[in-house]
Design a protein that fits this description.
With 319 residues, the protein is an alpha/beta fold. Helix content is 31%, strand content 14%.
Amino acid sequence: MASSSSLWPFPTPPSLTQVMKEDGECINWAELPSELTSSILRRLSSIDILENAQKVCTSWRGVCKDPAMWRKIDMRNLGKFFYKDRHKHVAMCRHAVDRSLGGLVEIDICYIGTDSLLNYIADRSSNLRSLRLAMCSTVTSEGLTEAIAKLTLLEDLEVSYCSLSAESLKVVGQSCPNLKTLKLNREGVNRFPYESDDDALAIAETMSRLRHLQLFGNKLTDADIGLNAILDNCPNLEHLDLRLCLNVNFVGDLEKRCSERIKVVRRPDDSTHDYPYDVLFYDSGSFEHYYPEDHYFPATSDHYGDDQYDIDIFGFIQI
């Protein structure tokens, strides 16, 4: 019998599926209506469902195999040693996609994304509306655009700390005419030569229906050409996040246009306390010839406790 720790967060005494109420009555979790069980289990990550919940009892396994359980897949809770278990998590993600039987509408992936995995998802999920990728260092611009070109119904796209060129952004916009939310988050960089309006111009050219745009840490120039192009060509934009876009001079006419046109504007120097990721920032002035030998700030294990593993892999320091 599995140990209680392997079945967290579900209670095990006096049996795997029974819990004693205060009045002495015993509730059998396995006898809950399947709709209620499904509602409870959907609050878990996909990894928790596959590794733990479906092993609790036969009735729960039946619920976990229902394609309706896999309309949303969450592959973010990978644990401390996610990189060591990378191949296992990729296999689990593929298995979850298979269980959806084409009904997948939303998927979140951290760290384990690859070109092959994205195209596996796209080939089996033509109804996908939301794709969120973060810290997927092995995903290429070519692989990502090949997959997204198959997802014509996509409305919500996040690409945080992954490779996506400006030319690929154009392909995304042309392939996904219904795109309403774009989060394109990069490492914050200030000072010459790290300035470019290419991302903004690609967005302005191909994503006219955007309502929410997050460009955290983008290399937008102080000439404001890119931002003005977005304001000119995205008339439905309601939310614009420019935090850590350190080259932008958010004053004068640009500030006025944003304030008049957009309901919610996050300025370059606004607080990052509600940002869901570690804030990654490069000060190019501290680099020798602008290109550091090791490509990252030196970091100590004190910042991450005992988990030096993450620092060794990604080479970033949190600020």
